[in-house]
Automatic annotation (TrEMBL), chain A:
It comes from Paracoccus aestuariivivens. One of its GO terms (molecular function) is FAD binding. This is Xanthine dehydrogenase family protein subunit M. It comes from the Bacteria. Keywords: FAD, Flavoprotein. Gene3D superfamilies: 3.30.465.10, CO dehydrogenase flavoprotein, C-terminal domain, Uridine Diphospho-n-acetylenolpyruvylglucosamine Reductase, domain 2. PROSITE patterns: FAD_PCMH. Residues 1-216 form the FAD-binding PCMH-type domain.
TrEMBL record, chain B:
It comes from the Bacteria. The lineage of its organism: Bacteria, Pseudomonadati, Pseudomonadota, Alphaproteobacteria, Rhodobacterales. InterPro entries: Ald_Oxase/Xan_DH_a/b, Ald_Oxase/Xan_DH_a/b_sf, Ald_Oxase/xanthine_DH-like, AldOxase/xan_DH_MoCoBD1, AldOxase/xan_DH_MoCoBD2, AldOxase/xan_DH_Mopterin-bd_sf. Residues 36-141 form the Aldehyde oxidase/xanthine dehydrogenase a/b hammerhead domain. This is Molybdopterin-dependent oxidoreductase. GO terms for molecular function: iron ion binding; oxidoreductase activity.
């Protein structure tokens, strides 16, 4: 670990506009500092500036940036009105990590690309202009949507995938005031400058996440991974599906583990709306989703996996298939 | 009492003693210390003025270090020294090496190899300086990084009997299958760590080791000093699984730096360094050929494999080890070949050989059973030879049939569907699988001191290690049982090279070997007590501090007359080792659910039934079986070392990337311990259990996956990525 200065902010104004790296739960930042992948010269501890409450906001909820993941997932309002969010958070990391991890930190967690995390390799995200060793290398975890020749990494988190399906927004505070960004636009595609994970500029801080009014429906977060818990998603599906008189009236979908950001393709939801649920319909929607997908070799399996996962989730959401035991 | 073990001890003395400790599910005496965090592990020794060392590792797969820019780093705050001594280790020592492994860190043989040590006042200073050290290399032009398809050399003496090709040609039913398994890491919880302190010419090293008496020799030889100048202390070890059989980089580097700096030095490997530099289990490619005659008997077995290791490294993952004795079939071809690649040293990882050998043999047996129309249990039972094929020696004991039968009954095997794809629960295919377990048994030279104190309490001493397995518990139980001392009055001291040499912890031999040494020391003490009491030894009964014989009852402390009685017991393998085929056996049953859409496999339940001689402690033995099955599940579903074939770097060198099973992966596990007495195995009639429950477990999972969804998986681990393309239509 490189030496660094440490300061503790006691109110928001001290934290913003600082030429310092904010540290919240530290569960991602400290790991990367130990590896010297992150080498901030100054840390600003934002754990004592408040922003750690969940409060009503219009018809929705406001989740403070310092609310711990565990607290958010356990909040009764979240569990009742946004079960998708609670489920996605609980699908991530481990109880110990979720006790520390915060809403803001979770959104800003960095990719798990193996080359990003190992010094001495070429990585445009860590060292702009150096190249990308994941291309042609071990890229089992990497993106099938929106990758460029500069970077094929994924955003690895779960919570944000649910937030994308929920159409949440991110409240940001900087020296020039505050702004609000749709969660769906918060993370970026790598384009030519993959060192930027999201739209935050230097000195800006996330202060909260806003959830719109609850929409009900069947809410499912399905995470496919190599072991039953404590592993990042190979692919994940966040779905809010509403049925009315046998037809789908709402289908808000987002996908994790497949792109540099939570993947949201409105066309897929649109293809479902107004139709009666059927395997045929779901297969067509899933085809539409993976139409543009492109594998890198090691992660080619993600394309059929995502396709089938979406079908499974839509069947579960609409009750097709059932859950009974059948002897064939 | 110095003799080798030549004649099976049929007395079963421990069945006649009366203290009631043997087999009792006693808690490990040190467990309280461990869960409270007060059992000091290697790195937790803090001699005054201790400096901190961090290893620098290579970023090329092969070549030479031509420059280390030490000066820049020496100028950094707190830095005390940069060491790249010729004696520092390039590779860790293999188990039982007893001499220095490959040294001299100026050459690089694999990506991640240690090339220098940076020592500083604080750990953070040393870590940062180690990362900052600029290294110039001369990299080799072409480096073999991919073992697949490389030319190989023989790695193990092949077994060729009869004519396998002909047996295959004439077989009524046969299978000819090729399997692959990926590399595994031991991934012990405690990283490798050493604290070295010199007093004059004498070194004390607190480290994390499995086989102390060998480790002393390895360390002394590496440092070019006499073993009597080296004392190793390793009282608590946070798991080894083979990775601490031999010494590794930290020990030699810490000793060299401490000597040079004139103060103690601690070197702890980071988690990533443990993966990058400590012995791994080789990946394997294995071809299995099984020929069954019209009567349903095996006529031939072929098991030919390639594995990999660094150039000249003698270890070759012995995947055919159990195939040599498990099933009949007079036409045989068993071979293990070695590909030489530039990848971290391969060596013993828990159950070397059988772990991945039985995994594929037992999967092949399942396919053969299906082809021939046998119940898989029946096929196995009818093909158990009465003597070891090709060696013509009897089995010391073998509870395989009992394990299969009792396991089947307890598991409900009769409910298994005869064909795949017959049970569906929502998205999930359900199925059951079975496999045999087998693991060779070994007795190793061991010594232990037992001292009956004048107050009647008991002290047991050996350099035997306890790597979390229960050595402290069972050695105390054996001594207390033999001498009639309640367990609360028994103290066991282990893991210090100044004590008599135990067998160490490896190959599942620690309990039976060092346990036998303790047993023999106790026998000598019992003889003395009988003599003092004036009764024949056969008449002596010792219980709760009393000696009872011929109607007389005398307190043992009276017989001691105020003086301690002390004996060193010794055991060495002898004729029984050669005269009998010795192994532990068992059977696995499991039920899996395979998601028809996503190809995730989840275990529903698993049962293992195991016979491994005398059960010394039902709790610790059961724990070993549970842990073994967890390893088997990992090998089946999740564990694989990843490498970048362009430069050899390991791509998942931490516990987030290398997936050992987590709690949610492990369903209800059931263990049945089959009581057995194996006199040829050891004077306490015990065999090894530490590794048995891995050996074949993954095959039970593979066979259950087939029974569930009709997919035969030949490449392990069976991740969703591998299974998905083979799944039938999910709807
Ligand atoms: C072993 C392991 C497994 C994991 N598995 C999963 C998983 O399965 N799914 C998953 O989703 N996550 C997983 N995680 C990641 C975990 O969710 C994140 O580490 C955590 O959410 C980060 O939150 P934090 O508060 O600790 O962030 P920190 O580590 O404190 O910060 C992370 C980043 O966010 C920045 N930051 C923090 N707060 C703010 C703010 N308010 N405004 C602006 N920037 C900010 C920091 O500067 C830093 O760059 C795993 C982590 C580990 C270590
Ligand atoms: S994929 Fe992105 S993060 Fe990974 S090596 Fe390439 S540039 Fe770096």
């Amino acid at each position: 670990m490189k030496f660094f200065d440490y300061a503790r902010a006691t109110e928001l104004s001290e934290a913003i506009g600082e030429f310092a790296k904010p540290i919240a739960g530290g569960t991602n930042l400290l790991d990367l500092m130990k590896l010297e992948v992150e080498t901030p010269s100054r840390l600003m501890d934002i754990n004592h500036i408040g922003l750690n409450e969940i409060s009503p906001h219009g018809d929705g909820l406001r989740i403070g940036a310092l609310v711990r993941n565990a607290d958010c997932a356990a909040d009764l309002r979240v569990r009742r009105d946004y079960p998708l969010l609670a489920r996605a958070i609980l699908a991530g990391a481990s109880p110990q990590l979720r006790n520390r991890a915060t809403t803001g930190g979770n959104l800003c967690q960095r990719t798990r690309c193996t080359y990003f995390m190992r010094l001495g390799t070429r990585c445009n995200k860590r060292e702009p202009g150096s190249g990308c060793d994941a291309i042609g290398g071990v890229n089992r975890d990497h993106a099938i949507f929106g990758a460029t020749e500069h970077c094929i990494a994924t955003y690895p988190g779960d919570m944000a995938v649910a937030l994308a399906a929920l159409d949440a927004s991110v409240q940001i505070e900087g020296i020039d005031g505050s702004r609000q960004v749709s969660l769906r636009d918060f993370h970026r595609l790598p384009d030519g400058d993959p060192h930027l994970d999201n739209v935050l500029t230097g000195g800006e801080i996330i202060t909260s996440v806003k959830l719109p009014a609850p929409v009900g429906g069947k809410q499912i977060y399905r995470k496919i991974r190599d072991r039953a818990s404590y592993a990042f998603a190979l692919v994940s599906v966040a779905a809010i599906v509403t049925l009315d008189q046998g037809r789908i009236t709402r289908a808000d979908l987002a996908f994790g583990g497949v792109a540099h950001k939570p993947w949201h393709d409105p066309a897929v939801g649109r293809a479902l709306i107004g139709n009666e649920p059927s395997d045929q319909l779901f297969s067509e929607a899933a085809d539409l989703l993976v139409n543009q997908a492109k594998g890198q070799g090691g992660n080619d399996f993600k394309i059929p996996l995502l396709r089938r996962s979406l079908i499974a989730v839509l069947r579960e959401a609409t009750g097709i298939g059932g859950n009974d035991v059948r002897n064939l | 009492m110095f003799g080798t073990y030549d004649i099976p001890d049929q007395r079963n003395l421990l069945d006649r003693t009366r203290q009631g400790l043997i087999g009792a599910p006693l808690e490990r005496p040190e467990s309280g210390l461990k869960v409270c965090g007060v059992a000091p592990y290697a790195a937790e020794h803090h001699p005054p003025n201790c400096a901190e060392g961090v290893l620098v590792t290579a970023t090329i797969p092969q070549g030479r270090v031509i420059a280390l820019h030490k000066d820049e780093v020496l100028a950094m705050p707190g830095v005390l020294g940069v060491f790249a001594d010729k004696r520092m280790l390039r590779r860790p020592a293999q188990g039982t090496a007893g001499k220095a492994p490959v040294q001299d860190v100026r050459a690089v043989e694999y990506h991640g190899q240690p090339i220098a040590l940076v020592v500083a006042e604080t750990f953070e200073q040393a870590t940062h300086a180690a990362k900052a050290l600029r290294v110039e290399y001369e990299a080799s032009a072409t480096v073999p990084l991919d073992p697949e398809g490389l030319e190989t050399e023989p790695g193990r003496k092949p077994v060729v009997l009869g004519d396998l090709d002909q047996a295959m040609a004439e077989a009524a039913h046969s299978v000819d299958l090729t399997f692959t398994t990926e590399g595994h890491a031991s991934a012990a919880m405690e990283p490798h760590a050493s604290v070295a302190e010199w007093q004059g010419d004498d070194l004390t090293l607190w480290g994390s080791f499995q086989m102390i008496s060998h480790n002393v020799k390895e360390l002394a030889d590496s440092l070019r000093i006499a073993p009597r100048h080296v004392r190793i202390r390793s009282a608590y070890v946070g798991g080894g699984f083979g990775s601490k059989l031999g010494i590794s980089h930290d020990a030699v580097a810490a000793a060299i730096a401490a000597r040079e700096l004139g103060r103690p030095v601690r070197v702890v490997l980071s988690r990533q360094q443990v993966f990058d530099t400590i012995t791994r289990r080789s990946e394997t490619g294995q071809r299995l050929r099984l020929a069954l005659d019209a009567g349903g008997y095996l006529a031939g077995i072929g098991h030919e494999a390639w594995v990999s290791n660094l150039p000249d490294e003698p270890f070759a993952e012995p995947v055919t080890q159990a195939t040599e004795f498990l099933y009949s079939g007079e036409n045989r071809k068993l071979a293990v070949n070695l590909a030489r690649i530039s990848r971290v040293t391969s060596g013993s990882v828990r159950a070397p050989g059988e772990a991945v050998g039985m995994q594929v043999l037992e999967a092949a047996m399942d396919e053969l059973a299906e082809k021939a129309g046998f119940d898989p249990i029946e096929l196995r039972k009818r093909n158990l030879p009465s003597s070891q094929p090709g060696k013509d020696r009897p089995y010391s004991s073998r509870m395989l049939i009992e394990a299969l039968d009792q396991g089947a009954r307890a598991f409900g095997w009769q409910d298994r569907k005869p064909r795949p794809c017959m049970t569906r629960e929502g998205e999930w295919w359900l199925g059951m699988g079975v496999a045999s377990a087998a693991r060779v048994n070994m007795l190793r030279p061991a010594a232990a001191r037992v001292r009956l104190e004048p107050d009647g309490s008991l002290r047991v001493q050996s350099d035997q290690t306890d790597i979390g397995t229960g050595s402290y518990a069972i050695l105390g139980q054996i001594a207390g049982e033999m001498l009639g001392v309640p367990i609360a009055r028994v103290t066991v001291e282990l893991g210090d090279s100044s004590l008599p040499s135990g067998a160490g912890s490896g190959g599942s031999f620690g309990a039976s070997s060092t346990g036998s040494a303790v047993f023999r020391a106790c026998e000598a003490i019992r003889d003395k007590l009988a003599h003092r009491l004036g009764v024949p030894i056969e008449a002596l009964e010792l219980r709760d501090g009393m000696a009872i014989a011929s109607g007389r009852e005398v307190a043992v402390i009276e017989l001691l007359r105020g003086e301690a009685m002390e004996e060193i017991g010794r055991i060495k393998p002898g004729k029984t080792d050669k005269d009998y085929a010795q192994a532990s056996y068992g059977a696995f049953f499991c039920e899996v659910a395979v998601n028809a859409f996503t190809a995730e496999t989840r275990l529903r339940r698993m049962l293992g039934a195991f016979g491994f001689g005398r059960v010394l402690n039902a709790r610790t033995a059961r724990s070993q079986c549970l842990g073994g099955m967890v390893w088997g599940i990992g090998s089946a579903l999740t564990e694989e070392l990843g490498f970048d074939l362009r430069d050899g770097q390991m791509t998942n060198h931490d516990l987030a990337g290398y997936h050992v099973p987590c709690h949610a992966d492990i369903p209800a596990l059931e263990v049945i311990l089959l009581e057995e007495r194996d006199a040829p195995a050891s004077p306490i009639q015990a065999k090894g259990v530490g590794e048995l429950a891995i050996c074949g477990a993954a095959a039970a999972v593979a066979n259950a996956i087939y029974n569930a969804c009709g997919v035969r998986m030949h490449d392990f681990p069976m991740t969703p990525a591998r299974l998905l393309p083979k799944l039938p239509d999910p709807f």
